[in-house]
Amino acid sequence: MAKKDYYEVLGVDRGVSDGDLKKAYRRIAMKLHPDRNPDDAAAEEQFKEANEAYEVLSDPEKRQVYDQFGHEGLDPNSGAGRGAGGFGDIFGDVFGDIFGGGRGGGRGGPARGSDLRYNMSLSLEQAVHGDTVEIRIPVLAGCADGDGSGAKAGTSATTCPDCNGAGQIRVSQGFFSLQQTCPRCRGRGEVIADPCGTCGGAGRSEKRKTLSVKVPAGVDVGDRIRLSGEGEAGPNGGPAGDLYVQMDVQPHPIFQRDGRHLHCEVPISFTDAALGGELDVPTLDGRVKLKVPSETQTGKVFRLRGKGVTQVRGSGVGDLLCKVTVDTPVKLTEEQRELLQQLKASLDSNSKHSPRGKSWFDGVKSFFDELKP
């Protein structure tokens, strides 16, 4: 099945800025997160698609390749992208192998190891305040028994007798003399007579590595931390790749994050809403007092300044926005019911006690009067 367009997956235009791209991804990730959609295979698949799309579009180089060549450009088995180098790079790949020029000619240095990605799950508290988290990752590391050379301990690789260490041999075919990778050493220029028993001569073996990752305060969903040289070891003693730790912030039972601001709902009794009062409100830094004025209506939002998030990039601290919801009492006793009936009768006698209700009913009456023939 053909892959969906990454911009359509995230619901953004092709010219979207990095900031708007991140906001779009955050909204989708929060909505489709598996913790919020248990046993929903469709939501999980869409969540994976959004992750894949953001990983590509948030990387300037990958985004450039994708914009020019589409999904085919990101396929390592396709020649479409070629690092977005265009015709010149393809020319070098094709003719370099024949004439020894370009990227295919000559024996290059040891190849760099692959980059790795690790998805780190964080609580909202860890993301806001920062933390140091230990992770364990499986990685191809240089074999310790042979110092990464692939040769048995106490021995070493020797110069390939077929190519004399060049990594390539010249083959005559009629009038043409072609240069190709040495089949004996496979371009290494060296051969191993006595391979290491641990890695089988590969020079690398899989192991689990424990790393301590310092998570800065204010990270958000989709943010990445690059750990240089902590990826896979390169073949033939080549330099290691990098490890990219991508942040995945779990939903919080009380707070929802929107950039540097936090949102929460605060239930209050209808007596506190009518008479006013002082409430204990939770924040990520502890409890604070919130003064609720009398005659507060449900849906009213109170702003607690400086109780939000300090972002990794940017200055200033966000706010905590508390939305009041009036909590209707349940399981009333007979005495409580009688008291409420008396209060209701008293309130119904004068419409000034319910201005919003009066305006609503007046609007309904006007609506039906207009429908009359």
Order of strands in the sheet with the most strands? 10-11-15-14
CATH-assigned fold name of the largest domain: HSP40/DNAj peptide-binding domain
User: Portion of residues in helices?
Assistant: 25-40%
CATH superfamily of the largest domain: Urease metallochaperone UreE, N-terminal domain
Query: Given the C-alpha coordinates, what overall shape results?
Result: elongated
CATH architecture of the largest domain: Sandwich
Q: Tell me the fraction of residues in β-strands, as a range.
A: 25-35%
The strand count comes to 15
| Biggest β-sheet strands, sense, barrel | 4 strands, mixed
Number of separate helices: 10
Structural account:
The longest helix is centred in the N-terminal third of the chain and has 17 residues. The protein is an alpha+beta fold. The protein is built from ten helices and 15 strands. The radius of gyration is 32 Å and the shape is elongated. A four-stranded mixed beta sheet has the order 10-11-15-14. Strands 1-9-8 form a three-stranded mixed beta sheet. Helix 2 runs antiparallel to helix 3. The chain folds into four domains: 85 residues, Orthogonal Bundle (Helix Hairpins); 104 residues, Urease metallochaperone UreE, N-terminal domain (HSP40/DNAj peptide-binding domain, Sandwich), CATH 2.60.260; 34 residues, no CATH class; 109 residues, Sandwich (HSP40/DNAj peptide-binding domain), CATH 2.60.260.20. The relative contact order is 0.10.
